[in-house]
């Protein structure tokens, strides 16, 4: 028998999102676990994709992406955040946000380099750092407010720190960074060579009149940052797997060295469809209101239950605490919900390295109202 080499990711298995979706399918449960909409994308966008496919735009795109789409992205960033990226040299189209994150980490991290992440953390950050020989240092945000003590973050900095990874708005907590957070981050990286990876895939899903504070709005941070975003979240087409990375030319040049040997380029006709669709700003400027209504619909349905609704400032995820319902771990409780009550969720412990159990689960409300109604009806019975 062939002796396989030691696994580079020996502690990594199938993601919790895939596991819970599989469990939902096996038990015919309502799937509020994995973060994807169950409603269709805009027919106009689908018609544009059809147009470009049928008219022969089906060959390789340039390495950095189709220029019309990059120009629209640059315009969106300038309109939203008042900052300029050169479309051709500072924006790269990627095969989704996760590929952009992977490539940015691969660009920076070498053996022994340290990267700081904030838990609860999206599950691709740590394995990718470790894949390239890096060491992860974690700051733990905790229920119910998931705030950051920047003095403690400062203590994590060493001469080996090469990267700080932030996720704003945060998945899974639904919290957003405030001006004070940004200013504290600026103080920490000032006079250092530390780079920043800013995962902002939910930037257009922010609630209650709050403003999304992008890393690119701050010169001190923009010059050292990879800004990551996703069209899957923006236009309800997660299966298209198209995102982008915006970064200064010096960083983009290095990013593309890795990108070209990872995926090289991204789906040509869909890029052109997105470029045309983005010309109408209303196709994304109304997204916050759209999802705020869904958030409120879910919260209203659960307010008289024994679930404690945690604050949700952005993303399309609602965190709830269930300690008045069950003393089971969040993993066991999520399984019980799926099997016995036909609602699939995600346990928060999956977003912590040490599987911290806070009796909190995550519900996705990027669903049709009929789907949410059925889930609420089941959850109200607990």
From TrEMBL:
The UniProt record lists the keyword Kinase: no
Cofactors named for this entry: pyridoxal 5'-phosphate
Keywords recorded for this protein, A-Z: Aminotransferase, Pyridoxal phosphate, Transferase
Residue ranges constituting the Aminotransferase class I/classII large domain according to the UniProt record: 29-379
Domain of life: Bacteria
One GO MF term attached to the UniProt entry: transaminase activity
InterPro entries: Aminotransferase_I/II_large (IPR004839), Kynurenine-oxoglutarate_AT (IPR051326), PyrdxlP-dep_Trfase (IPR015424), PyrdxlP-dep_Trfase_major (IPR015421), PyrdxlP-dep_Trfase_small (IPR015422)
One Pfam family from the record: Aminotran_1_2
Keyword Transferase: yes
Protein's name according to its UniProt entry: Methionine aminotransferase
Organism: Chryseobacterium taihuense
């Amino acid at each position: 028998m062939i002796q396989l080499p030691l696994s580079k990711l020996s502690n990594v298995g199938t993601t919790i999102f895939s596991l819970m979706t599989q469990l939902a399918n096996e038990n015919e449960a309502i799937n509020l676990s994995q973060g994807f909409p169950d409603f269709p994308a805009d027919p106009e966008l689908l018609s544009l994709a059809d147009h470009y496919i049928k008219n022969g735009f089906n060959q390789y795109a340039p390495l950095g992406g189709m220029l019309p789409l990059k120009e629209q992205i640059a315009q969106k960033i300038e309109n939203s955040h008042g900052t300029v990226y050169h479309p051709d040299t500072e924006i790269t189209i990627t095969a989704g946000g996760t590929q952009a994150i992977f490539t940015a980490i691969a660009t920076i991290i070498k053996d022994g380099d340290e990267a700081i992440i904030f838990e609860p953390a999206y599950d691709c950050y740590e394995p990718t750092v470790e894949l390239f020989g890096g060491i992860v240092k974690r700051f733990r945000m905790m229920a119910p407010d998931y705030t950051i003590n920047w003095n403690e973050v400062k203590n994590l900095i060493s001469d080996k720190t090469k990267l700080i990874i932030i996720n704003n708005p945060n998945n899974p907590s639904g919290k957003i960074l405030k001006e004070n957070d940004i200013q504290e981050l600026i103080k920490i990286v000032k006079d250092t060579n530390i780079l920043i990876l800013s995962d902002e895939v939910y930037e257009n899903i922010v609630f209650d009149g709050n403003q999304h504070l992008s890393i690119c709005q701050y010169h001190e941070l923009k010059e050292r940052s990879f800004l990551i975003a996703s069209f899957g979240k923006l236009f309800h087409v997660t299966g298209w797997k198209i995102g982008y990375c915006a970064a200064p030319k010096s960083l983009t040049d290095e990013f593309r060295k890795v990108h070209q040997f990872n995926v090289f380029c991204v789906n040509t006709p869909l890029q052109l469809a997105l470029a045309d669709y983005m010309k109408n700003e209303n196709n994304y400027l109304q997204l916050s209101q759209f999802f705020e209504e869904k958030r409120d619909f879910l919260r209203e349905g659960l307010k008289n239950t024994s679930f404690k609704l945690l604050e949700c400032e952005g993303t399309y995820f609602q965190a709830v605490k269930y300690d008045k319902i069950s003393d089971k771990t969040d993993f066991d409780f999520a399984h019980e919900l799926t099997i016995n009550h036909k609602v699939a969720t995600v346990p928060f412990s999956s977003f912590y390295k040490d599987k911290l159990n806070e009796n909190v689960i995550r519900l996705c409300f990027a669903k049709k109202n009929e789907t949410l109604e059925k889930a609420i009806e089941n959850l109200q019975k607990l």
